[in-house]
Specification:
Belongs to the HesB/IscA family. This is Iron-binding protein IscA. Helices cover 20% and strands 47% of the residues. With 107 residues, the chain is an alpha/beta fold. It has a single domain, classed as HesB-like domain (Hypothetical Protein Aq_1857, Chain: A, Sandwich). The protein is globular and about 35 Å long. The relative contact order is 0.26.
C-alpha cells in the first residue's frame, strides 16, 4: 500500500507548510459527497493520530486514515498548472469514474 507525490506536488506542499510555519505533513482522505459519491479531502496536519498511516515521498509526509486508504491506495498526487488554472490532481487507479464537474469520483 502506498501513496506517492510527484516532485511538483511535493514542492508545492513544502511551500505551503513553510508559509504556515508549522505542520508535519499533508492529510489525504475521502468523504461521501457529490454526484459520484466520494470527494477528495486535503488538509495540513499538525499532530498525528494513532490510526494514521504515514507515507513519505520527496521529503513530504502524506498522512491518511485507514478507511480512506482503501479508496486511495496507489494514488499519486500531482500539482498541475493549465493556463490560469492550477491545483492538485489525483491520479487514483481505484477510481471507476468521475462526475462531469470533476469534484467527485466513484470506485
Amino acid at each position: 500500500m502506498a501513496i506517492t507525490l510527484t516532485e511538483t506536488a511535493a514542492t508545492r506542499v513544502r511551500t505551503f507548510l513553510e508559509n504556515r510555519g508549522k505542520g508535519v505533513g499533508l492529510r489525504l482522505g475521502v468523504k461521501t459527497t457529490g454526484c459520484s459519491g466520494m470527494a477528495y479531502v486535503l488538509e495540513f496536519v499538525d499532530e498525528l493520530n494513532d490510526e494514521d498511516e504515514v507515507f513519505e515521498d520527496h521529503g513530504v509526509k502524506v498522512i491518511i486514515d485507514k478507511k480512506s486508504l482503501v479508496y486511495l491506495d496507489g494514488t499519486q498526487l500531482d500539482y498541475v498548472k493549465e493556463g490560469l488554472n492550477e491545483g492538485f490532481e489525483f491520479n487514483n487507479p481505484n477510481s471507476k469514474g468521475e462526475c462531469g464537474c470533476g469534484e467527485s469520483f466513484n470506485v
